[in-house]
Amino acid sequence: MTTLVPFIGLAADRPSHASPSRPFRLLAAVTSALLWLPRFWRARSDLAALAAMSECERRDVGVTAFDIENMLALPVDRDPTEVLARVVDDRRHRRES
């Protein structure tokens, strides 16, 4: 047996209007896109501050010059400071075990 749907996109078990969360998801996406540039510049300035440190200071926080070079090679949509924090945390855990 076949069921005919009178309007495209309508089904008996689905409401015909958009879900109320769709506008909120759209607003969140627009907000995220607008705030991407300030986040990008802040993360890059944090990375520049790490690069400006001496080798002794970087060693104290567990970062090497090679780590900073690797973070600069990341895509621009990734936060290098978060990735770098994971690298340092993994390095500390390996040293402790």
Instruction: Tell me the β content.
Output: under 5%
SSE order in H/E notation?
HHHHH
Number of helices: 5
Work out the number of β strands. Answer: 0
Largest beta sheet, briefly?
none
Compute the average pLDDT: 82
Rg of Cα set: 24 Å
Query: What is the global morphology?
Result: elongated
Uncertain runs with pLDDT below 50, 5 residues or more?
Answer: none
| Structural class by sheet pairing and helices | mainly alpha
Helicity range of the residues?
55-70%
Q: Note the gap between the termini.
A: 65 Å
Structural overview:
The longest helix is centred in the middle third of the chain and has 17 residues, at 36-52. It is elongated and about 55 Å long. The mean pLDDT is 82. The protein is built from 5 helices and no strands. It has helices spanning 21-34, 36-52, 55-61, 65-72, 80-96. With 97 residues, it is mainly α. Helix 4 runs antiparallel to helix 5.
SSE diagram, text form:
Elements: H1 21-34, H2 36-52, H3 55-61, H4 65-72, H5 80-96
Helix pairs in contact: 4-5
Q: Quick gist of this model?
A:
With 97 residues, the chain is mostly helical. Helix 4 runs antiparallel to helix 5.
What are its keywords?
single chain, 97 residues, mainly alpha, 5 helices, elongated
